[in-house]
């Protein structure tokens, strides 16, 4: 009898907990330049280790609070436990250091003014990994993916007083996720980027793409192409684009579904480049909505073994980076966090950064636009991906759609990379080939690449000629190779006898090489973990790679030490990957100056 009662009660509770209101995740671009209220700060939280979404039969998102002394509520947001948003929960409380699972966050707020003719959305810059967004007791929807933005509408639910936003974030690593289960970086869980309340007119400009038509580069009158997308029921017939510095004020006819593709003639356009990161104020108006942005115009393409920026060959002096502020041990999520690492990269002499292995915070891309640093962006299609699982391909496409929607208008971002160190098996080849086609349908203005390994695979392989014939190269514009000769196999001096041969006439980027060093630990050049070993490895590796025919750039692994649970050598790693050229405390290692010298003379 008791068992029957229990299962009936469980059934009722499950039905109760899944009452979705039909809210879809709508992409709202350029939230930074919209009317917003920041919801960052301290949020209350409840952990949900068994992912039951409720305690004692009461869904957490319903925000039950006992009224009578006899009331039974088996969770509480009011017991003072808080988490900073944005931020990784793993670094905020010792008991959450390695917690992977679900945490429910609650933010309460008043909205003094709720105006007719306005719509309200909750925008989240990113939350790792599977997020359930609820508002005032209603589930709005879910978002999967730890590094891209999403928005849900609350117009019909928002009140002037006592609104409660409850967001459940599940950071559990799963085999059919993107990334999959094992990564050489910390699985920082939680709401890792800004949360804001966004107010827009009932019909608003939710997305726009603007770029320079590379076929007009050599012409005096160039063409700026664009796409515009409005959201709302009452769609205007016209929109307007204004670029004052270029004397552009052009009306755009909209289709019946509130979209349009447009082209604008432009004279005297100053091109964006690392030497001259020129940004133009661009304003788009439609109906009651108006959105402004700072956009640079440049072209990027390849010709034979060269990468051409604005039609001129460029060598990409790069470095790899994770989206972490080492000094705060936290996910990076502010302009200051971005400035810290971009300043270090510029000190190194870099004009290029590989943002590994997932979409980094938007602030770093926008700051790179301003500072004139070119970027490589990628999705975490990394070790252990279920290539044969069509749902995983859909997840990758969705994440790419969100990333491209967010960064399409950023001049600094020049390369989309679709994978890192993935073995060329048939399922993988098919998956990546489909994904490459998909990405090109959304954005044909940027270059495609993927970080691959040589045919011989093994680091330290005795062959003297390392060859590259991975079939996925066919689909890519750039051959990018990861090579750890001298660290994971062989000794640095073996670099002297190696040459590289690719089966394709395409530019080559060395997308990873390097070795670990404990900053401040010194020894002879064969003492593992010493700065001298890392210095020697850089000297030999750079000399080897510099001889590559078609070398168009490099991004050594990595600018600064970063956290990884795979690195447990105590007294040396202690949970940090030590391949940085700078320690987590900001101190430079000897190899930093080897690379700086190379870039100064290159
Ligand atoms: C790999 C991988 C990185 C990793 C690095 C390392 O090639 O792409 O994510 O951190 O090597 O071993 O340090």
Ordered list of secondary-structure elements with their pairings:
Blueprint: H1 2-17, E1 35-38, E2 41-48, E3 54-55, E4 58-59, E5 82-85, E6 102-109, E7 118-124, E8 127-128, E9 130-135, E10 138-144, E11 150-153, E12 163-170, E13 190-191, E14 195-201, E15 204-212, E16 222-231, E17 238-243, E18 248-253, E19 259-266, E20 280-286, E21 289-295, E22 300-303, E23 306-309, E24 312-313, E25 316-321, E26 324-325, E27 330-331, H2 335-347, E28 352-355, H3 362-371, E29 374-378, H4 390-407, E30 413-420, H5 426-442, E31 447-452, E32 465-468, E33 479-482, E34 499-502, E35 508-512, H6 531-546, E36 551-554, E37 562-563, E38 576-577, H7 590-601
Parallel strand pairs: 25-28, 25-36, 28-29, 29-30, 30-31, 31-33, 32-34, 33-35, 35-36
Antiparallel strand pairs: 1-14, 2-5, 2-6, 3-4, 6-12, 7-11, 7-14, 8-13, 9-10, 9-12, 15-16, 16-19, 17-18, 17-20, 20-21, 22-23, 23-24, 26-27, 37-38
Say how many strands there are.
38
Helix content: 10-25%
In what order do the strands lie side by side in the largest sheet? 25-28-29-30-31-33-35-36
Coarse morphology: globular
Bound molecules: alpha-D-glucopyranuronic acid
Strand content: 25-35%
SS summary, helix count: 7
Backbone CA Rg = 25 Å
Q: How widely separated are the two ends? A: 80 Å
Structural class: alpha+beta
Largest sheet: 8 strands, parallel, barrel
Instruction: Provide the residue-averaged pLDDT.
Output: 95
Indicate the low-confidence ranges by residue numbers: 9-22
